[in-house]
Design a protein that fits this description.
The protein is mainly α and about 45 residues long. The protein is built from 1 helix and no strands. It has a domain at about 1-25. It starts with a helix and ends in a 20-residue tail after the last helix.
Amino acid sequence: MGGIIAGTAITLLFLPALYVAWFRIGEPRPPEPAVEQEEQPAA
């Protein structure tokens, strides 16, 4: 029974943390607001 709990804990907690540390994944940045371009009058 303890092996099942330990295996589940390793799979759900340790492996994702190891993946983030190995590939240096940071928190996602919020999207930057789009800059609206001014319309130029037709000549």
